[in-house]
Design goal:
The structure holds two protein chains of two kinds.
Chain A lengths: L5 H10 L1 H23 L2 H5 L31 E3 L3 E5 L4 E11 L8 E20 L5 E23 L3 H14 L8 H5 L10 E11 L5 E9 L16 H37 L1 H16 L2 H11 L4 H12 L1 H15 L2 H8 L4 H37 L10 H10 L8 H29 L6
Antiparallel strand pairs in A: 1-7, 2-3, 3-6, 4-5, 4-6, 4-7
Helix pairs in contact in A: 2-6, 2-14, 6-7, 6-9, 6-10, 6-12, 6-14, 7-10, 8-9, 9-12, 10-12, 11-12, 12-13, 12-14, 13-14
Chain B lengths: L1 H37 L1 H5 L4 H19 L8 H12 L18 H36 L4 H14 L3 H15 L18 H36 L2 H9 L3 H30 L2 H7 L4 H10 L3 H29 L2 H4 L1
Classes of the chains: A alpha+beta, B mainly alpha.
């Protein structure tokens, strides 16, 4: 073990390409976590297991960018919640929401849903129609909202399978003479005369007519069902995987770093104390160390997670229990060496307290080694936690990467070809691990010059 | 060493004991109620509801006493009794799980599962170490060469992927996208049929490839580091000066000197392979110790948990012991100390 000053380490580290790459990856992961914390409301990850939150998302759909590699463009799942609003106050008032869609995909949408809440009183009429790229206008639905003398809020979801929509479409297409009974409403709307997809700009009009003007559309959303959605796609439970993956980052960093720091600090102090004290204390402490070393870690972690608690914070503690052992052994042998140095003996002779010698003279010597081992033990902590979560024993309230993989496994993602559900979480685990391994290796090479050559 | 074993056992019993008691007690209460509903004459023979309740409670208490559940699980005689039975290798009967042949004796179940885990993971570990040692020796002898760089890079990258995740990807690729290997590792035909061995080997291929693929890089890297250290020593330079061929130096002299730590790691990873396989076996559905352990924990089958933990710990301790002995054999310097 050599004496390397901190400035020297910094200089050497700046020379190491691998170390810099590691720092780079780590920095981007931290930035990602910060972005996650700032932009995505904390609510989203608490809602992770609430199916109601994800209702307007598509089921098991691939990421949006697969379309770049496809000759046949897969329809995108579109959630249009930003209509242009027109209001007219006449004898009959009109509130109109218009949703424009550029439809240029090679397949029909799987369905469409119009979801709205409207506050009104009296009798109102709701009319939905669509203007197609060939300028033909089809009336889809015309229905009156339930009458009310007082102000009420009406909430409704209108599905493309709605019978009156089907009837209206039948009337329209029978007139121009190519109605096909077996084709669903959405396919008819988006089809040309040959039954192919009619590409171009569609405009969905939602009009509410009333005799009094006190109509206010609070919420209005048109969902065009598709098979690709979002940057990372969605899973079987309609959850947006991008949200889960991004939220997994701070969790993984938290687990990895806190376990590594906790176990290294504990092991370091334990080992140094044993080595410094020597004799019977050393012997006893090392025997205890051996006992922990001989415990089968993963089985015990599983038993602990099942019997005591699977909270993420408790799990961090359990992981620490099993990971300080190796560090304690190494730091003990290092402490044995340092103990014999003259300045330690001198300060002992001067009557300094043991704790002061340990913390002022011995541990600072071991710090470079400690940093290297922190960096090296982070990936193990992350993969172990992911493994426990993968078995379904992790904390269900947090969307960790292992949790996502657990869901993927239970819903048979591999068998159904849903690669976007399996690959990204593992890649994230590996990238995070790699960042710390790179940093650790770079530090290790500086601390142990023998490996460098 | 014996002490370690006992502490492990004690910890296991302490962790699962209380839950086990609750499950057993509930089981007894359920059993008593079921018996009463089955024979209505018992219920009719009581005049009042209180009397009937009294009877049920007495029945439950009586049965608990015969099973020794009236004393808490941490009472010395119960723990002592459990530990004594385990020491004479009598693990008792499993509560829920059975072996494939239908026996619920824990010893039978373990004996059935261990060979399968050994077949898969020990084979994998041996293949990994052979590839690792040669690749590591090659890389270590040419520090800075292309082989060395590729090996080191591969080691670092492969070690950050969890084996089970790579397993999932492999299943996705080779079992579903290209249908070369079966997705489930449990053979679909019965063990009595003549083709069973072949089927087992065929089903074993995918997990074996996965484990080897992820494992050998780390090994090669470790061996490489030991080799780099050894090759810097004086006696190697002396041998080079005498004119012994490079190949002979690497494989005979340097590798032999790097052997002690390598053997220690080999022994530890062999025994570790038996227990660390829980997740991998779950992914590939391999019917070995790891999956047994996981199933036992998910239904809280206490005798199996204790038995399996005991066996794992014993194997681990034996391999530490053997590793120590071998270390002394290969590196006589340790003996005199």
């Amino acid at each position: 073990m050599s004496n390397v000053s901190s400035s020297e380490i910094r200089r050497e580290f700046a020379k190491s390409k691998v170390g810099l790459i590691g720092i780079g990856i780590l920095a981007s992961l931290i930035i990602l976590s910060v972005i996650a914390a700032v932009t995505i409301p904390i609510d989203t990850f608490k809602q992770w297991n609430n199916p109601g939150n994800w209702i307007s998302y598509p089921k098991s759909s691939a990421p949006i960018w697969v379309n770049y590699f496809m000759t046949q463009k897969i329809p995108e799942h579109l959630i249009l919640d930003n209509p242009s609003t027109i209001t007219k106050d006449d004898v009959i008032s009109l509130t109109s929401h218009q949703f424009g869609v550029q439809y240029h995909y090679d397949d029909f949408p799987s369905d469409f849903i119009y979801e709205y809440s409207v506050e009104y009183s009296g009798s109102q009429l709701l009319q939905i129609s669509v203007i197609r790229p060939d300028q033909s206008q089809i009336l889809l639905l015309s229905r009156s909202l339930p009458h009310s003398d007082t102000k009420i809020v009406h909430h409704e979801r209108i599905f493309s399978t709605d019978n009156s929509i089907k009837k209206n479409i039948q009337i329209y297409f029978s007139e121009i003479g190519f109605y096909n009974q077996n084709t669903s409403s959405e396919d008819m709307i988006f089809a040309n005369k040959d039954g192919q997809v009619l590409k171009g700009d569609y405009l969905f009009l939602v009009n509410i007519f009333g005799v009094e003007e006190n109509v206010e559309i609070i919420d209005s959303k048109l969902i065009l069902g598709g098979k690709v959605f979002g940057i990372m796609g969605t899973d079987e439970l309609r959850r947006d995987l991008a949200v889960g993956l991004i939220w997994g980052t701070p969790l993984a960093l938290f687990i990895g770093i806190s376990v590594a720091v906790g176990s290294v600090v504990a092991g370091l102090i334990y080992g140094v104390y044993a080595g410094f004290k020597g004799k019977k204390t050393d012997e006893a402490m090392m025997r205890f160390n051996d006992v922990i070393y001989a415990l089968p870690a993963l089985p015990f972690l599983i038993i602990l997670a099942v019997t005591i608690s699977n909270s993420i914070f408790v799990l961090v503690g359990f992981l620490m229990i099993f990971s300080w052992v190796g560090i304690a052994k190494v730091s003990r042998s290092m402490a044995l060496q340092i103990k014999t140095r003259q300045y330690v003996e001198a300060s002992q002779m001067m009557g300094q307290k043991n704790s002061k010698i340990i913390f002022k003279h011995i541990i600072p010597q071991l710090l470079p080694y400690a940093f290297a081992s922190i960096a090296i033990s982070v990936p193990a902590a992350i993969t172990t936690e992911a493994g426990i979560s993968f078995l379904g024993l992790g904390d269900p309230t947090f969307p960790t990467w292992g949790q996502i993989l657990h869901d993927a496994y239970t819903y048979g993602a591999a068998a159904r070809g849903m690669w976007w559900w399996i690959a990204p979480p593992g890649i994230m685990i590996a990238i995070t691990g790699l960042a710390f391994v790179f940093i650790g290796n770079a530090l290790d090479a500086i601390v142990n010059p023998k490996l460098k050559k | 060493m014996f002490g370690v074993l006992m502490i492990t056992l004690l910890l296991t019993i302490a962790l699962v004991g209380s839950n086990m008691d609750i499950i057993l007690k509930q089981g007894i209460a359920y059993q008593v109620r079921a018996e009463i509903t089955e024979s209505p004459t018992i219920a009719q023979s009581f005049a009042t509801v209180e009397e009937f309740d009294q009877f049920v409670r007495e029945q439950i208490d009586q049965r608990m006493k015969t099973l020794g559940l009236d004393t808490p699980w941490y009472s010395p005689q119960r723990i002592g009794f459990t530990m004594y039975k385990i020491l004479i290798l009598d693990f008792g009967n499993a509560t829920f799980l059975t072996s494939d042949s239908g026996s619920s004796n824990v010893g039978d179940i373990l004996l059935e599962k261990i060979p399968r885990t050994v077949l898969l993971f020990t084979t994998a570990t041996i293949i990994i170490s052979i590839i690792g040692i040669f690749l590591g020796a090659l890389a270590g002898s040419k520090v800075g060469s292309v082989v060395d760089r590729i090996t080191s890079a591969f080691a670092v990258i492969s070690s950050s992927f969890p084996v089970w995740w790579v397993g999932m990807l492999m299943i996705f690729m080779f079992a579903f996208t290209y249908q070369i290997f079966p997705a489930r590792a449990t053979p679909s035909i019965l063990p009595t049929e003549p083709d069973y061995i072949l089927a087992l080997l065929y089903h074993m291929t995918l997990p074996l490839i996965t484990i080897v693929l992820i494992g050998f890089g780390t090994w090669a890297y470790l061996v490489r580091n030991f080799m780099v250290g050894t090759l810097q020593e004086d006696f190697i330079s002396a041998k080079k000066a005498i004119g012994i061929s490079k190949k002979k130096i690497i494989y005979k002299h340097a590798l032999k000197n790097a052997a002690p730590p390598i053997i220690t790691i080999l022994a530890l990873s062999l025994s570790g392979s038996l227990g660390g396989a829980i997740i991998t076996e779950a992914v590939f559905d391999w019917p070995g110790m790891g999956r047994l352990y996981f199933e036992a924990i998910s239904v809280m089958d206490l005798p199996i948990i204790i038995g399996a933990t005991y066996v794992l710990t014993v194997l681990f301790l034996i391999s530490i012991f053997v590793a120590d002995l071998l270390y002394g054999y290969f590196d006589p310097r340790v003996k005199t100390e």
